[in-house]
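Quick one: structure for this chain?
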Amino acid sequence: MNVTPTIGNRIEALDILRGFALLGIFIANMLTFHSPYFYIDPHSYFSTPGDVASYKLINLFVEASFYPIFAMMFGYGLNMQYEKAMANGTSYVPMMARRLAILMGFGLIHALFIWSGDILFTYALMGFIMLAVVRVPKKWLLWIALIVYLLPTALFIGVMYALTVLNPNSLMEGFVDIQQIELAITAYAHGSYGEALVFRITEWLFIGLTNSFLSVFMVLPLIMLGAAFSKWKLFERTAELKGKIAIVGIITLAAGISIKSWPYIDGYDYYNLLIQQLIGGPILAIGYACVIILLCTLPIFRTIFRPISKAGRMSLTTYLMQSIIATLLFYGYGFGLYGKVDIETGTMIAVGIFAIQVIFAELWLMKFRMGPFEWLWRKGTYGKNMPKKEEKQQAL
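Got it. Here's what it folds into:
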């Protein structure tokens, strides 16, 4: 069997892909860090030529097309840990339940005290469901994932289309919330930490927590898909499967970009935006993943982008630090840049912060085996019985 290059017992391509996903997620999240993005119609809110052009690029090529990669990598890692436990004859559920409970704790702290757009709580919640689902054979897992994702998505889009046809203005009041925009600006741009905290908790309870439960239909299938890919040993068999991966990559890149371009052709109706985000986003994500996986078979690519793999290896630390740094930059209790930068500047800031994180990860891992938050996570999972040697755990 031809296997993808590894470092130690880690799959390097998996870390590189996760690193690129973290960059894409940060660029998309940056919109919510410096503007009241949760409550606006971005196609009308961003009105300057520079912002319109910048948002279009992010909307087409970044937004909703990198978090699916990260979700699939989470599922890939969960199955790797399951198979390792089965091979070693150790108990998988108790260990993983502790691991997911700690991740849920990280997510709650992150959502309530740092940034309401947290995804860790959702991953942990879906992970508990995966404790049972990960045992499903790979072919069944793939079909279950597709059905759980596509049927509710199609139904939701269909309902929104029907509502739009019956009453074209029925969705706009919920789409743009002027009062919440003003409250977000007041809390985040001008408020103290306490004032921002109160608004953030309310925001997470109404948006974040609701989305976490809806993620059974949006995020869980992506995690299941990643677990199915792990059972097929996609990364381990890249050289063997590269022809098939290339075909899938070409098809999904073309289809993903076409679908994500649809609102710019047919109009910004809510159902078109849902098609763009919920259908086009994950399809393009698969295309991106295929390209990066294939490029990782080239030694020169792995050499050049190996530092990004270090940020991917420290994904929990990288993700949390992005929120800490960004909120300190933009919120009123920090440098107060909220609402004061355009999209292009915000994107450049995201890329700059990520570049610094890559350097930090490179230096940190020269001395330590894992990132600081990864160490806390691992220590909480194993306690005094924490393994001395690094294990093949790449769940997040």
